[in-house]
Amino acid sequence: MGYSAEQLIDINKELKSKTPVEIAQWAVQNAKNPIVTTNFRPYEAAILFAATQAKSDIPVVWCDTGYNTPNTYRHAEEVIKLLDLKVDLYVPQQTAAHRDVVMGIPQIDDSRHKIFTEQVKLEPFKRAMANHKPDLWFTNLRKGQTAHRDNLDILSLGADGVLKVSPFYYWSDAGLDAYLAENKLPNEHKYFDPTKVLENRECGLHA
């Protein structure tokens, strides 16, 4: 999916007035191998709903760090069943129990934090992308989440050339709350990302 910067600007202007499902439908019609990724954090049901409305059998890549809360795992099971998701699960090559003994969860100023992030998030994600080889990647990035994400848009090109599609890019939490209620979708806020530490810190997948 080769788009120039100028083309992306024009397409983003057109898509801004579309609904999330309409954006997703446009995207899958122009893709050969789309995927959607999820970690089942708050509001993830919205992007999973939009993506599966556009393509019911779209591969859903779940990179599970192994440190999710019980609430997140229960929420994941509920959403998977509700939307009949075709989940492809990726986990770190070392168990959380093993890592807890030899490293634990390093603080952000600990030199081991970069190694920890690579092990629990980046390596499983890279493995998933290498296996699926997508040309289009649905994400739930939103403006206002981090400084880096404020410079993106509904459509953005990753360094690997994969087109990232964020149908809810301009949506607020309040708007998403209404969207979930309208579509009878569940939400869960007891979520823990051991790699971010701060909510407005980039997770490493999109930078």
Structure description:
- Helix 2 packs across helix 3 (44-54).
- The longest helix is centred in the middle third of the chain and has 20 residues, at 113-132.
- This protein has helices spanning 5-15, 20-29, 44-54, 70-83, 96-102, 113-132, 173-182; strands at 34-38, 59-63, 86-90, 136-138, 155-157, 163-165.
- It has 207 residues and is α/β, with parallel strands linked by helices.
- It contains seven helices and six strands, in the order ααβαβαβααβββα.
- Strands 3-2-1-4-6-5 form a six-stranded mixed β-sheet.
- Strand 1, helix 3 (44-54) and strand 2 form a beta-alpha-beta unit.
- It has one domain (5-183): HUPs (Rossmann fold, 3-Layer(aba) Sandwich).
- One of its GO terms (cellular component) is cytoplasm.
- Pfam families: PAPS_reduct.
- Belongs to the PAPS reductase family. CysH subfamily.
- It comes from Leeuwenhoekiella polynyae.
- GO terms for molecular function: phosphoadenylyl-sulfate reductase (thioredoxin) activity.
Please give the structural blueprint:
Elements: H1 5-15, H2 20-29, E1 34-38, H3 44-54, E2 59-63, H4 70-83, E3 86-90, H5 96-102, H6 113-132, E4 136-138, E5 155-157, E6 163-165, H7 173-182
Parallel strand pairs: 1-2, 1-4, 2-3, 4-6
Antiparallel strand pairs: 5-6
Brief digest:
GO terms for molecular function: phosphoadenylyl-sulfate reductase (thioredoxin) activity. The protein has 207 residues and is an alpha/beta fold. It has helices at residues 5-15, 20-29, 44-54, 70-83, 96-102, 113-132, 173-182; strands at residues 34-38, 59-63, 86-90, 136-138, 155-157, 163-165.
